[in-house]
Methionine import ATP-binding protein MetN
Amino acid sequence: MITTSGLTKVYRSRGREVTALDGVDLHVREGEVYGVIGQSGAGKSSLIRCVNLLERPTAGTVTVDGQDLTALAGRGPRAGKELRRARSRIGMVFQHFNLLSSRTVQDNVELPLEILGKSGKERSRKALALLDLVGLADKAGAYPAQLSGGQKQRVGIARALAGDPKVLLSDEATSALDPETTRSILQLLRDLNRQLGLTVLLITHEMDVVKSVCDSAALMERGRVVESGTVGELLATPGSQLAAALFPVGGLATGEDRTVVDVTFHGESTTQPVVSQLARTYNIDISILGAAIDTVGGLQIGRMRIELPGRYEENVVPLGFLREQGLRIDVVSQDGPLVKEGAK
Ligand SMILES: Nc1ncnc2c1ncn2[C@@H]1O[C@H](COP(=O)(O)OP(=O)(O)OP(=O)(O)O)[C@@H](O)[C@H]1O
Ligand SMILES: [Mg+2]
């Protein structure tokens, strides 16, 4: 649904050059919630502004819903009109809401419909339906100053939906909100994604946001995407920083002569039977030291740290059994750092 290839953005100001995006290849599939995470200055906002062409990329292409927006940008008035139409199909939600304080809630939502030249009756019908969708049917006549932060963001989301977008872009939409309000806004985005089949690209610097709503994620560092994939794919990638942050496990060996391993489930096997089968088949007691598991589409994904009696050499066969179930096994050495799979 959204594809960027070789996307590059260099800002030039007062003789200085800043490379904010350095060849970003991103692929967001239709109907998914895709999170881009990274530290301040990593280039996240530049990415989202280039995706909707608010900012002209220095190089590379942006394709949204099959249309190459970069090809339309800056190519005469006819292409300009097409670009505007394409952009009206991309909704944008901002960190600081960007509502007009002099307009009522309903008039704020109607704004993009005015720009699209819709009639008064149609605008009002649409705005009220959208306010109902975001749970603010009773606030149509209120002014932004009379709303809480979470309510303002709901208005921002309703406004973003006014042009019937297929894609919603969100830049830190929850970072000005408290944790509980954040949860309710993320839930709203999730519901809209499911109900309307909306593809959502959201930018955040909070891992919790990625964890609670995203199907896929990318990690940005210094203008580059250093990791990306579905949550299951990330888990299946040895050494993935995103997977480690999404599914943290702790726990130390309870004594000498014990083997501690991290078992990663990435969608093919389920936790419960595997652990009990292992215990039954080899007649060993297994302790679970820590676990971070989520259920996605009926399958369990995540990590579990378990302890088996005996040294590593004595557990080669049971660990082989786990690998045969399609699980990734990382041995946690006595000194702490992980011994990666394959490096025996
Ligand atoms: N309009 C601009 N002119 C010049 N440099 C800019 C401009 N916008 C961003 N930059 C620079 O580009 C780099 C990436 O900025 P960007 O805003 O994309 O980061 P970010 O990941 O969104 O950070 P944050 O989490 O703080 O919002 C930074 O070094 C920033 O200073
Ligand atoms: Mg930013």
About this structure: The chain has two domains: 2-235, 247-342. The CA atoms of residues 31 and 199 lie 4 Å apart.
